[in-house]
Fold this sequence. Notes:
With 306 residues, this protein is an alpha/beta fold. The chain has helices spanning 11-23, 47-51, 68-80, 96-116, 136-144, 186-195, 205-219, 221-227, 241-251, 263-275; strands at 29-35, 56-61, 85-87, 124-130, 162-165, 170-174.
Amino acid sequence: MPSDIIQWFPGHMAKTRRLITENLPNVDLVIEVLDARIPYSSKNPELRRLVGQKPMLTILSKSSLADPQAGKIWEEYYRSSGRRAVFTDCVTGFGMNTLAQTVEEMMAEKRAKYESKGMSGRTLKAMIVGIPNVGKSSLINKISGGKSAKVENRPGVTLTKQWVSTNVGLDLLDMPGVLWPKFEDQVVGENLAITGAIKDDIIDLERIAYALVGRLRALYPNLLAERYKLGDLSQYDDLDDWDLFQVIGRKRGFLISGGEVNTERCARALVDEFRSAKIGRITLERPLKKEKKAPVETPDEEKSDG
């Protein structure tokens, strides 16, 4: 089975780190956009250090693709840890009103400070950051009322910083998507690849699909079985995840001459159907007490089949 190590740190990523540090003095707020399906893995562990004491707001995007029950668990996690977080979705508009209200609450003291200095008309500024393909540009376009930021469903589209006016009382500085230099936990690298934060053409998609089967088997067995007509998954208990991946390929008829599974085609189908939520609304991670690595499984009481 595929077993390559995922590492990726293009040169423009180092440039983005410098841009963040250089532009911090020009903003009042830092907004980090995470993928609601992988809140741990899509969070850049370097960002808090780079930002320092600057106020930070976490936005979890693509909520319509994520498990709503898992979302409630994450909401409570952020609330209990005293962090401001808003779940949003740019396709449905979910969370946009909450986002505007949260920004106003967080910036109330700053606005009052400017007003006390006779600067009541001053526009507040925020830097928006996040990993590639997490949905920053879609979010900016949603709250700016127009196509102000270039949007494509692939990582690495925004390569330079740009200022955008919005309808939530902020001017936004859109920064290029940035990954951290090294994935110390391969689970994180796999999750980023599964959701599309890493370009498909530089990874082994079969290895990623195999990892996805393992995640779905552990977290959403009913959704996996239903989508691929597997029946009772317990009949495959003696098979590892790679063998189950092959079973899925046969069920879908992805065969080549000699009756072997076309693993490349099967991998593409699995990953595409996850990303489009055709398998179901899925969140691959749950909160841990300590943010050391991305979890693969949830405790039994938190498991969900969708």
